Amino acid sequence: MSKLLQVTGLSVTYDTSSGPVTAVDQVDLDVQSGEFVGIVGESGCGKSTLLFAIAQLLTPPASVAGGEVIFRGQNMVAMNAGELAPIRWRNMSVVMQSAMNALNPVKRIRAQYADAMKAHGIRSKIEIRQRSEEVLELVGIDRVHLNSFPHQLSGGMRQRAMIAMALLFTPELVIMDEPTSALDVVAQRSLMLQIKELQQQLGFAVIFVTHDMSLVSHFSDRLMVMYAAQEMEYGPTRQVFDSPAHPYSRGLLDAFPQIRGPRVPLQGIPGAPPNLTAMPPGCRFEPRCPLRFDACAVTQPALYQVADVQARCLLHDPDHRDKAELGRDR
Ligand SMILES: Nc1ncnc2c1ncn2[C@@H]1O[C@H](COP(=O)(O)OP(=O)(O)OP(=O)(O)O)[C@@H](O)[C@H]1O
């Protein structure tokens, strides 16, 4: 696998009446070609903002405050609209949370696909028709629905039609922002299976945002856990699940039912994430952390390498090894 995306030190601020709010704080993220990367975290931790920043789709009051997004060797942060336009859809596409918001309600699916292809210089009517039929059938929808308006499709079909649109040019990277969250559990699972199947068949990489740990557990190769605008842990999904290196990852895991294994009572994480305008001076998770010790309240942890994962937790600082030993017993 080769590196497709390298995000380094990416920060995003929202300009608010009480000053700038940092919603994404110096995030590093790399994605290999064909890889499935999951991003999880509680509501408001900055997942969607990060995705929009990667795709360079932020609009005011949000803006990139620092960092780089190197995609296929080019820094997207430094590009203007004209330079970004040919990359979007063709090389990198985005699937939003709700197709109802992303699709135009007064245009047939056929016309929306045609618009996207025409915007990328495809003029041949035959080519447009053939490709539209092809992508719709790829996601398991009969071609007759090219004549449908979005509201004539079920929720699951609409999300599929949106994914088909994102695949019009077989991009190398598809960014998905909770594409299954509006669906019932059965439709959610079947759409996840289909996304995974398409990804393996067509070879594109995926960045998939969700707040549901169990949803990504079987589908992602690597997992990033976000909390209060920062990345807390990033590494192979199996390792994060089998031995989470960050107490917050452990808390998230305990808050969701496991598909396999014995039944265990679910535990929430007491407390709430900090207000982004008033961050704790030390570790951002410290006020809620069951393993906190004195240094956590005053020291901002770096990202530490723990086997194959990186974790932002002082338990992995060589100076606090003794605390890690104690933590293991709790
Ligand atoms: N328009 C805005 N103006 C000011 N702050 C904003 C705005 N939009 C988002 N934010 C801030 O950015 C933070 C991150 O929001 P974001 O939508 O990226 O989180 P998220 O993790 O994707 O949440 P969810 O899972 O609920 O979609 C929010 O907590 C909020 O404080």
UniProtKB/TrEMBL annotation:
It comes from the Bacteria. InterPro entries: AAA+_ATPase, ABC_transporter-like_ATP-bd, ABC_transporter-like_CS, Oligopep_ABC_C, P-loop_NTPase. SUPFAM superfamilies: P-loop containing nucleoside triphosphate hydrolases. GO terms for molecular function: ATP binding; ATP hydrolysis activity. One of its GO terms (biological process) is peptide transport. The keyword Transport applies. Gene3D superfamilies: P-loop containing nucleotide triphosphate hydrolases (3.40.50.300). Residues 5-253 form the ABC transporter domain. SMART domains: AAA. PROSITE patterns: ABC_TRANSPORTER_1, ABC_TRANSPORTER_2. Keywords: ATP-binding, Nucleotide-binding, Transport. Belongs to the ABC transporter superfamily. NCBIfam families: oligo_HPY. This is ABC transporter ATP-binding protein. It comes from Microlunatus elymi.
